[in-house]
Specification:
Length: 166
């Protein structure tokens, strides 16, 4: 960037002070480090978290992709926000603003979509499918699935089998 040389010289000075350790080196080191932090704060606004979700679309897209690809993992909002270095409140609000659904509801939607495919295409038990898509409880899976599809997993499977036999 345009500021590379200035940043490079600051870091070189900091490194030199630390390695040479002349008298008052710590004071010089901390002083230059403070200048470095102020410089970054003033010239690199991308380092601070945005207030609007659309000002940093890449991080939310990364969260979206992560949830889509890692839906089988044991994911809770706290772990998710820690993984992406975001506050859970910011993540929830920004994700919902961008995608119209909370991150955890989106996660359950991904799980249910994949469970739906498995219910139709495999003979695995409902319990096996629930666990394989990331649910820890069959009851929770059944309730969540019914919210998305308005039918139970058992009804989905029955309907799929009836369609096969026709």
């Amino acid at each position: 960037s345009a500021y590379f040389n200035e940043l490079f010289h600051m870091l070189a000075y900091i490194e030199r002070e630390e390695s040479e350790r002349k008298p008052f080196w710590r004071t010089a080191f901390l002083s230059e480090f403070d200048k470095f932090i102020v410089f970054i704060s003033r010239h690199m606004p991308l380092i601070s978290l945005p207030h609007k979700s659309d000002s940093n679309p890449n991080i939310l897209s990364s969260v979206h992709l992560y949830l889509r690809s890692q839906y089988t993992d044991d994911i809770i909002l706290e772990k998710l926000s820690d993984y992406f270095f975001l506050s859970k409140y910011y993540l929830s609000h920004a994700f919902k603003e961008k995608y119209g659904i909370s991150p955890m509801l989106f996660l359950n939607k991904c799980r249910c979509e994949n469970a739906h495919k498995l219910l139709i295409t495999t003979s695995h038990s409902i319990a096996q499918i629930a666990i394989s898509v990331g649910f820890n409880s069959i009851i929770h899976f059944s309730r969540t699935y019914k919210k998305f599809y308005n039918v139970s997993p058992t009804q989905t499977r029955r309907t799929a089998r009836l369609s096969e036999n026709k």
